[in-house]
Design goal:
The protein is an alpha/beta fold. It is 42% helix and 18% strand. Helix 5 links the parallel strand 4 and strand 5. The longest helix is centred in the N-terminal third of the chain and has 18 residues.
Length: 214
């Protein structure tokens, strides 16, 4: 029987894509040959990003490691969304049928599916396949603590986070002055807070979180 494989589903942004592949290499090394790695590659929504991903894939495919890259069929990008985060969420979500089909067609048994923090719309597809599903969090532990707290802020605060004065209280962190909050949450970008909040909610649907931090 073929060795079990871990399926990775990274975001197309280089910082996320390469961080996730690096984590996969460490898993391969730690498994002592008991696991392989399958990376499902979504077509990036822009030509420039697609070229970056193609370059990463070519370099890693030539490394000689037991990593298989599978390009998912392209989807038609959604239209009519103002917030970049909403576009990314909807665009990623459209790949659910392709993910299910790709994983179901693998010759190796699937030990787990790991999705990037911005690919959590595809956790439902992983759930349909009845295998453990994990979120890979490419940022810091402090930002993860904040993301997990965002859903509670909606109920506990009378205004949106970016409209709140003073400090923000997050379990595991000292009080954070609002000016030091990430701009994607406290700034004026349209719709950001709501979509980051949704990502934080979806983390709870995973079997666990793999964080890129000590």
């Amino acid at each position: 029987m073929a060795a079990a494989t871990i399926v990775f589903l990274p975001c197309w942004e280089s910082g996320h894509f390469m961080s996730m592949v690096a984590a996969g290499k460490r898993m391969l090394d730690a498994s002592g040959g008991a696991l392989s790695l399958t990376v499902l590659v979504m077509q990036a929504p822009t030509a420039a990003k697609a070229a970056e991903v193609d370059g990463h894939v070519r370099r890693e495919a030539a490394s000689g490691l037991d990593i298989r890259f599978l390009n998912l069929p392209p989807v038609e990008p959604p239209t009519g969304y103002v917030a970049p985060e909403e576009f990314n969420f909807r665009y990623t979500q459209l790949h659910a049928p392709q993910v299910e089909e790709a994983v179901a067609g693998l010759a190796s048994p699937v030990a787990a599916i790991v999705v990037d923090l911005f690919c959590t719309p595809l956790l439902d597809a992983a759930g349909e396949l009845a295998v453990p599903r994990y979120v890979y969090f490419a940022s810091t532990g402090a930002f993860l603590a904040l993301m997990l707290r965002l859903p509670a802020f909606r109920e506990e605060l009378t205004a949106r986070l970016r409209e709140t004065e003073g400090t923000v209280h997050v379990p595991g962190l000292p009080p954070v002055p609002l000016p030091y909050m990430p701009a994607c949450l406290s700034g004026d970008k349209i719709g950001n807070y709501e979509w980051f909040e949704d990502y934080g909610c979806r983390f709870m649907d995973a079997s666990g979180i793999i964080i890129n931090s000590s």
